[in-house]
Amino acid sequence: MEAERPPAPGPGCGRPQLRAAGRDPAAAPVSVPAPPQGPAVEFALPQEPEPRAADLGAPGAGAAGPPTPSAHIPVPGHRAPPGKARLDEVMAAAALTSLSTSPLLLGAPAVAFSTEPSLEPWREAPVRPPGSSGDGGWGPTSDQSSPSTPSPPLPPEAAHFLFGEPALRKRKSSLQGLFQCLWKRCGKVLSSASGMQRHIRLVHLGRRQAEPEQSDGEEDFYYTELDVGVDSLTDGLSGLTPGSPTASVPPAFPHLEPLEPPALPSLLRPPALPPPPVLSSLPAPQGCLAPVHPEPQPIPVRACAPALPTKPGANPRKPRGDAKKCRKVYGMDHRDLWCTACRWKKACQRFLD
DNA sequence: TGTGCCGGGGT
DNA sequence: ACCCCGGCACA
Ligand SMILES: [Zn+2]
User: Fold this and answer.
1) Main location per UniProt (predicted)?
2) Nearest protein residue to B4's C1' (by CA)?
3) Contact flag, residue A318 CB and nucleic strand B, below 7 A
4) Structure letter (DSSP) for residue A32
């Protein structure tokens, strides 16, 4: 019960989080001359990557990079070192280029990333729910508003990163498709079926997460799946964002059915029901029989099915978004540049799918 | 093996 | 509200 913080890294670097502690605007060693034609945005991606690459070592090095001694502070505006262009540089440049520039730069080596027909949706950031956190996607820390005040190349921080490695971790993800909980007053919408199942199992069915037995599939009865394409998905998400003045129904989300011809049942049922069901006594469900809960839900869609993602003709798999997110774009060593959502391991808000 | 992120916990 | 991480599905 007591905190057994085993090996404290040491004073100064209590956690690997290493927030952008040293971000002094004044001391900021970065002063990239505002781009003459830069309309805005562009968090200053220097024409050339800093020599910092040397310190970072391998780009994909998940593990802590080699603690290269002498972390020389990168000089902004400093031209690339005459000699070699490291993969890191190219990558960074490419990523950044594709990010902050329009299709104007086609000759760049960023072709690797420009495979996407239309990116940088965030750039346009047409609708940013004001009610929501001002973070949205950009403005990681707080400053960064003027075009001439881009983000620093993280000078000394880089060193910290190397030393205070956050150790390794692992996670996964899934995307594409929306799932709405049909539970009376819930109506929660998740983007992953598994998540929804878990949600229902734990929250509504009050079931143990570690239930070795095969899932009875009961969860399937309480949520509906919304099949949507990537495009529509993005659209849906847009409207999904809180703060959508449109529509007179704040809850539930907007449209999404019109996208699909037929097939979509009447989902999204404005709850407006009494209290949620009680999850006290849990009668054992019987295979396909509809759950015998005291207060069943508005009847699920797939009434009596094998209850299992065993979809013969369809692809049960939900391909994840391919868009590179902050983590990949900036790398673990630039977490400060990630959007807040990414930093918190939430759905990226900067690089939408 | 690494990534994206839900859900839940801490403050 | 902000922040973070366990753990999972996916690539
Ligand atoms: Zn992000």
Assistant:
1) nucleus
2) A173
3) no
4) P
